Amino acid sequence: MTCEATPAQVLTALAKDNDLDVNGKEFAVWMDNNDELAHLRNEFNVPENSSNDVDCLIYFCGNSLGLQPKKAAENVTKVLDNWRMETINSHFKGFLPAALCDEVVQEDMATIVGAKTNEVAIMNALSVNLHLLLISFYQPTPRRHKILIEAKAFPSDHYIAESQIRLHGYDPDQSLLLIKTKEGEDTVCMDDVCDVIEREGDSIALVMLPGVHYFTGQVFDMKRITEVAHRKGCMVGFDLAHAVGNIKLLLHEWQVDFACWCTYKYLNSGAGCIGGAFMHEKHERNSFPKLLGWWGHRMQTRFDMTNDLELQPGIGGYRISNPPPLLMAPLKSSLDIFKQTTMDKLRKKSFLLTGYLEYLLLENFQTPSNRMLEIITPQMERGCQLSLRFNFPVEKIFEELEKRGVRCDVRKPSVIRIAPTPLYNTFQDVFNFIQILSPLLDNFNNSS
Asked: For the residues 322-327, what does the mean pLDDT come to?
């Protein structure tokens, strides 16, 4: 198969070559037995139905909250023990020393986002980091004052853009430019994005878009968007909440100006855990306005307490407060698992795993005579997630799935997001999900 082959084409070819039926359980078992990443599932606390306190057969919610790495609790305990035993000396000694703990995971994070180590900082939370970087990268003028975002942006991104515009004395009604989908479509056309930048670019100060859209699961063409925007003189930043650990990123190579992300979705660090930020090294000695704190001071003289700022070049200079080792511990637990593979290998499995889900959904629930659901996620421009729109009340379907041990999530008004994650989900998870969903939808169909 060529690189242009669809998941369905690859899957049916594999089935044919091994005398199997894509629709049969034997094919799912064969795929799992031949999965070079299957062992990574053992690195996570995967909920089992036999557990006394968890009623979960299938976990498909890694796009919202990743599973807990088995090492997470151990590493948190190590940090607590280091604090207990070393007291004040735990700032520079022992496991994840407090003053250095963000630097311990910095290189591994940079690898995942396709950046140089000095272009990445582990700090704050996603929305906080976006605000900090917009202080620098959104510098409106009477001629160039607009921020370009998608019309259905994640609410926090929309609020951030509006508040930054108001902070500079402008009106979001004039300065917030929204990319809309075509009538009757759910995903954003990349040609339309680029056309708007070409047409409106002289008035756009900042293009701020997602790497992967949270609602539809659509992957945005970050390389192309960055190139077009830079030709028009715009700054470019990305929210990578649903992209990091999900798709391959090459932030340095793409010349992206800045990016921010959380770490608790595909990076499995735990709810509300610490975020990450990227700034391209071409801006490392910028004179942009910025908010400062003592952790942006060079480490070599930080504790001299002279109050004469020696700003660390690059994104490190945007750190304001000392990092929390208790949050670095679960993040390190997950990044250590990522080091056992590559994003290319994860993407290869994800292409087939989510493709297998798509294939079975279309085979079972989107026949010419009876379309019970619609997949609104693009076939090729996607990561793990499929967003499904149902012809039945979505909250009732979600409730019934929960009763049957399937963990997923709802996005109103009509979508359930399903995200088979290659680090810990299996092809049998997908097959079993279809076996659960099929009689459920049949019941809804018959009752309607």
From this structure: 97
- How many Å is the maximal CA-CA distance in the chain? 76
At 134, which amino acid appears? L
| Residues, the chain | 448
State the average pLDDT for the chain. Answer: 95
Region of 415 please: left (phi>0), alpha (psi -120 to 50) or beta: beta
**What angle in degrees, to the nearest 10, is found between the helix axes of 222-231 and 190-200?**
10
Centre a 10 Å sphere on the Cβ of residue 39 and count the other Cβ atoms it contains.
Answer: 10
Distances (CA, A) of 293 to 313, 319, 321, 358, 438: 14, 7, 6, 48, 55
Q: Is the dihedral of CA 405, 406, 407, 410 positive or negative?
A: negative
Assess whether pLDDT exceeds 50 at residue 1: no
Output the six-digit token pair for 411. Answer: 């996005």
Using CA atoms, how far residue 183 sits from 68, 213, 361, in Å, is 40, 18, 25
End-to-end CA distance of the chain: 42
Q: What percent of the chain has pLDDT over 70?
A: 97
User: Which pair of tokens denotes residue 128?
Assistant: 């906080």
Beta strand pairing call for 373-375 and 235-239: unpaired
d(CA 229, CA 331): 33
- pLDDT beyond 80 at 133: yes
Alpha helices (runs of H) in 116-187, residue ranges in sequence order: 126-137, 155-167, 172-175
User: Please, which pLDDT band fits residue 51 given cuts at 50, 70 and 90?
Assistant: low
